[in-house]
Design brief:
The complex is a heterodimer. Chain A is α/β, with parallel strands linked by helices. Chain A contains eight helices and ten strands. Chain A has a single domain (about 5-245), classed as Rossmann fold. Mean pLDDT of chain B is about 80; it is low at about 400-405. Classes of the chains: A alpha/beta, B alpha+beta. The complex binds adenosine-5'-triphosphate and magnesium ion. Chain B: Keywords: Cell membrane, Membrane, Transmembrane, Transmembrane helix.
Chain lengths: ~250, ~850
């Protein structure tokens, strides 16, 4: 199977602050995210995972280096184009507070399409809804949904517009293991059945076990990679990573 | 606890600033009106004190400044008698007039727009308490016919210098006077508050105003040193003939200034009403601001509760903020009030009420009132949110999203509905019959309706928002839906913000309905009742010399000239107006619908009455009515009852009867009818030739006359619009405030929307649409209430001349459009702020 690259970073550097207070969150990161695969990004707290996701999702701009979505280099696009890009080609799932509280589940799911003024594809919508299992909850407001259901609505929203890539930053971070299983199965399913490209940040080795590939970050650099991971392998690798850290610092 | 309050206050200073602004404006109006009133008070008291002697002798029953000053007089013999009274240093006869105007070099009248044109005879006796009286500032006093002096300010306005020949128009026997300006003279206060002062020598004054009779308007008495006013008054009283009376100078000055102050009291009433509107509208802003701030801080407050703060402490900490805000607002408002008073001073100078000689009076009353009003309103307005804050459960600190306990909207709406019903009931009760204390009930009714509407607005507003939302969704898609939902998420907040605009707009619409009705009524009245062709009248509503009317009779092509007069009088003891007409020509220029008796019998001391007066007062044909003018009572017989129109006073007599009773020898209007076939242009030119030399008198045809009668209504409306405009400004600030606060409140949500692809433009549009929803809600409710109020006001005044109802739809639509524009404008800053939010940082906010 030839793997197409959905997004890639080349020499990506992101620094916050100036002078003494300067923090380098990403340090010359080059990574390719393959289309149609489920990639996990792991690493200790503060290692730059969220920053990397934000740079990929056009929510933040790099200090140096380039980010490509498909063939487009994000750095060359203005705010207007980036907004459109976020709307039409990227899906994003945050750790919490994903939904607009005044809108129903259905309206939330269709929000990016509605903003763009596009008609949803009914077949696809039905498919997504059934996949997430939210059919009975469509007319509910977010405050009438459980945390797990809210995250599933957020995932459905990310999927509804058939974006090129979905970025999920610790989507299961706030959930119990049952809910988090539901979400992960759903994401896995979207990759397998719908051919969706998903990139997910997680701290949870169990969650990482659902993915096809793991990219390990530490101190803003890519330090390791693992293909076809299982949770046990991940656990081992993490221990190693943690052990290595002090010597690197 | 106090420290925590301070800190949170400081952290939220910008948000509080906007709500403070409403308080600032309200307080400014209160302070401004008090300062201005005090200034007026001082100006008039000091002026009037300088224009009277220690004791004044005058015709009995006549107060200073009264319109018929020229008919009731004191004989010259009294002056000599008073002079011989022990303790009297000097006694001087005064001749004075209040309708004598200077014609400026440009041919225009100086002043005159409401301010009197005073003429006095010259003498140099000191004023009360030994202060200087009339003082020559330049040149000398007038000594003979053909000489004149005037006050320096008038000379300057008229562009005259000593030595020039000047023109003066009077309402006396001599309508026009030409004389050489020999000097400039003024009373000690200098300023005359816009009035003009002309000084003549006594003989010329008697010639001009009393046809040369040796009589005086009053007698100015100066006491010997060491004699006080009260004692001297007693002594003088003993020598006076019947028909005259004596008062102390202090009393005379007080009466004169009280009269003027009464006449001007509408200014302060006006300002205080607007202060009330500003404060009511402002208190909505405060309630809103504090509600939002408390909602935003619920977590912090819950934490305080969790750490052991009592409910009362939480309430107090919020109230403390309110009081601090009130303090700042009051202080700034006080300063602004001072500026406002300066502004009003300048504005009134434009209208001829020149107060430039008097500095603003900064009374302690104004200061105390400013702070009491400012802090009280803020404190009361913040009390509800503060109490709500204290109800936050401590456990809320641990939860992610805290919902403040919201009192049920429906229960309030029910209360509001009852208030509206009660208000409407009161209004109907007043309108459907003759009631005592009408104004009071009317005011109570209107207040009930508006407060009830405010309480009901969250519920009543829902369908309106839904309606607008429907249009939005159709037109703006997702952005429209978001805007609609945002407006509905906190109906009370939306409604409270809209309420401010609602009140402002209700008042504006009410006044424009009333104004349009008044204008229409004037037009209808003139069209229906005035069948003549021309009206000769004073340009400022001042009376004019009867010789003008006499001359008009002689113009070729004129068929009939009807002179009309009116003045203040007592009829059977009630203070009211009395009219006088020439019965014959009157029927040729006006339509009068006689119901009983006949106008043919209207001769000499007889009157006709309106059917309304006949009903109210029980007049019947053949009855005697007792007309009291200047203390003298004349009985007259009722010979006809006519249909009431707003142009007719209750009781009208003949010109002869009027003069016999002591009415002033001045005409107010002369109605002219053209002979059939006479050339229109020629008749008019003939009439204008008469008035050409007298700028205070003008000839108008029916349309011009109607336009002239409408002008005061228009001017009043303009003034009211200007002031109500401020209420609307406050309302706009309210919208800005609410939007800005809710943008801050929704920072995370906005970040999320941006993250899923909402563009800056769409975001700005969303905020703008929300703003327009609020504005339109206020506009719709305000227009509905305003039209209702306008109708009520018109109905309540239908007896007073506003008989026709007119609803100016065009103007009302304009207001609605303006309200929408206001919405767009108000959203500008909050929308910009929302669009500028950094996406990532917004999402990270908690
Ligand atoms: N806005 C910012 N300003 C300054 N420093 C920042 C900012 N955002 C992130 N950082 C820093 O950049 C580094 C990487 O942050 P990032 O949020 O990417 O970490 P992370 O790997 O997502 O951590 P976690 O697992 O805790 O979410 C951290 O050291 C953080 O302190
Ligand atoms: Mg992170």
């Amino acid at each position: 199977m030839t793997t197409r690259v959905a997004a890639r970073a080349v020499g990506l550097t992101k620094a916050y602050g100036q002078g003494e207070a300067r923090v380098v969150a990403l340090d010359d990161v080059s990574v390719e995210l393959e289309a149609g695969r489920f990639t996990a990004i792991m690493g200790p707290s503060g290692s730059g995972k969220s920053t990397l996701m934000h740079c990929f999702a056009a929510l933040d701009s790099p200090t140096d280096g380039q980010v490509f979505l498909g063939e487009d280099e994000l750095g060359r696009l203005g705010d207007k184009r980036l907004t459109e890009l976020r709307r039409d080609r990227i899906g994003f799932v945050f750790q919490s507070f994903n939904l607009v509280p005044t809108l129903t589940a259905q309206e939330n799911i269709l929000l990016p399409l509605a903003i763009a003024g596009r008609k949803p594809n009914q077949e696809w919508f039905d498919h997504v809804i059934d996949t997430v299992g939210l059919r009975t909850r469509l007319s509910h407001r977010p405050n009438e949904l459980s945390g797990g259901q809210q995250q599933r609505v957020a995932c459905a929203r990310a999927l509804a517009g058939r974006p090129e890539v979905i970025f999920a930053d610790e989507p299961t971070g706030n959930l119990d293991s049952t809910s988090s299983d539901e979400i992960l199965q759903f994401l896995r399913h979207s990759v397998d059945e719908l051919g969706q490209t998903i990139v997910m940040v997680t701290h949870d080795p169990l969650a990482a076990g659902y993915t096809d590939r793991i990219v390990f970050l530490a101190d803003g650099r890519v330090v390791d990679e693992m293909l076809e991971p299982t949770s046990d392998l991940v656990l081992d690798r993490m221990k190693n990573l943690d052990a290595r850290l002090p010597s690197e610092a | 606890m106090l420290r925590a309050s301070w800190k949170s206050l400081w952290a939220r200073k910008i948000r509080l600033l906007l709500s403070t602004f409403a308080i600032v404006l309200g307080v400014a109006f209160v302070a401004g009106s008090l300062v201005f009133t005090a200034t007026l008070d001082r100006a008039f008291t000091s002026i009037m004190n300088g224009t009277v002697g220690d004791v004044m002798v005058r015709p009995a029953g006549q107060k200073a400044n009264e319109a018929f000053a020229q008919t009731r007089t004191v004989p010259a013999s009294v002056v000599d008698q008073v002079r011989r009274v022990p303790g009297v240093a000097r006694a001087e006869g005064d001749v004075s007039s209040y309708s004598t105007f200077v014609v400026g070099r440009n041919g225009k009248i100086v002043g005159g727009q409401g301010a009197p044109g005073i003429a006095v005879s010259y003498h140099d006796a000191p004023a009360g308490h030994g202060t200087p009286g009339l003082t020559v500032r330049e040149g000398r006093a007038p000594q003979r016919s053909g000489e004149i002096a005037m006050d320096p300010a008038t000379a300057k306005r008229a562009d005259y210098r000593v030595g020039d020949t000047v023109n003066v128009v009077t309402s006396g026997r001599t309508p026009r006077l030409s004389a050489r300006l020999v000097g400039l003279a003024s009373y000690s206060a200098g300023s005359l508050v816009g009035a003009s002062l002309v000084v003549l020598d006594p003989a010329t004054a008697q010639q001009t105003y009393f046809a040369g009779r040796d009589v005086f308007t009053d007698v100015w008495v100066t006491a010997e040193p060491g004699h006080d006013q009260a004692a001297l008054r007693k002594a003088v009283a003993q020598v006076l003939p019947p028909g005259t009376e004596v008062v102390t100078g202090d009393q005379a000055a007080d009466e004169a200034s009280d009269d003027i102050k009464d006449a001007l009291s509408f200014i302060s009433t006006f300002l205080l009403i607007f202060a009330g509107v500003a404060l009511v509208v402002g208190s909505f802003l405060i309630v809103n601001t504090f509600s939002i701030l408390v909602a935003q801080r619920s977590r912090e407050l819950a934490l305080l509760r969790a750490l052991g703060a009592s409910r009362r402490q939480v309430t107090r900490s919020v109230l403390f903020e309110a009081v601090a805000v009130g303090l700042v607002g009051s202080t700034v408002g006080l300063g602004l009030g001072f500026v406002l008073a300066l502004g009003i001073k300048a504005l009134f100078a434009q209208f001829g009420l020149d107060l430039s000689g008097t500095p603003l009076e900064f009374t302690p009353r104004a200061v105390v009132a400013a702070y009491v009003v400012g802090m009280l309103v803020t404190g009361l307005a913040a009390y509800l949110p503060a109490r709500r804050a204290s109800r936050v459960a401590p456990v809320a600190a641990l939860r992610d999203d805290v919902a403040m306990p919201e009192a049920t909207v429906t229960r309030r709406a029910l209360g509001g509905g009852l208030m509206v019903l009660a208000g409407v009931g009161a209004l109907l009760w007043v309108l459907t019959g003759d009631r005592t204390r009408e104004t009071y009930w009317l005011g109570a009714g209107l207040l009930g309706v508006i407060l009830g509407a405010v309480l009901m607005s969250p519920v009543v507003g829902r369908p309106v928002i839904r309606g607008i939302g429907l249009a939005y969704r159709r037109t703006f898609g997702a952005v429209g839906t978001l805007a609609e939902q945002n407006s509905l998420r906190n109906p009370r907040r939306t409604a409270a913000t809209a309420s401010a605009l609602m009140i402002g707009l209700a008042l504006v619409v009410m006044m424009s309905v009333f104004g349009a009705s008044a204008t229409r009524s004037v037009d209808v009245l003139i069209a229906k009742n005035f069948t003549g062709d021309y009206v000769v009248s004073g340009t400022f509503g001042t009376p004019f010399s009867p010789t003008v009317t006499d001359q008009a009779r002689g113009v070729p092509g004129v068929e009939a000239v009807a002179r009309t007069r009116f003045t203040q009088a007592q009829i059977d003891g009630d203070r009211t107006g009395i009219g006088a007409v020439d019965p014959k020509p009157l029927t040729q220029v006006a339509r009068i619908d006689v119901q009983q008796g006949s106008l043919d019998r209207l001769v000499g001391k007889t009157v006709f009455v309106t059917d309304k007066a006949a009903k109210d007062k029980g007049y019947r044909l053949g009855d005697q009515v007792r007309i009291t003018l200047g203390g003298v009572t004349t009985p007259m017989r009722v010979v006809a009852v006519v249909k009431s129109t707003p142009a007719l006073l209750d009781v009208t007599t003949t010109i002869a009867g009027y003069e016999a009773a002591g009415g002033p020898h001045q005409d107010n209007y002369a109605f002219v009818a053209r002979a059939p076939g006479a050339d229109e242009a020629q008749v008019r030119a003939g009439l204008e030739r008469i008035t050409a030399g007298i700028p205070t008198v003008a000839v108008k045809d029916q349309d011009e006359f109607a336009a002239e009668q409408r002008r005061p209504i228009d001017q009043m409306l303009t003034l009211i619009y200007a002031l109500l405009g401020l209420a609307v400004v406050i309302a706009v600030l309210g919208i800005v405030n609410t939007l800005a606060l809710s943008v801050i409140e929704r920072t995370r949500e906005i970040g999320l929307l941006r993250a899923v692809g909402l563009s800056r433009r769409q975001l700005r549009r969303m905020v703008r649409l929300e703003s327009v929803v609020i504005a339109m809600l206020g506009a719709v409710l305000g227009v509905v209430i305003g039209i209702g109020f306008g109708i009520v006001l018109q109905r309540s005044q239908s007896g007073a001349g506003v008989a026709e109802l007119a609803i100016p739809w065009g103007r009302i639509w304009l207001f609605v459009l303006l309200a929408a524009a206001v919405g767009v404008l108000a959203a500008w800053w909050p929308a910009r702020r929302a669009a500028r939010l950094d996406v990532l940082r917004a999402i990270a906010t908690d």
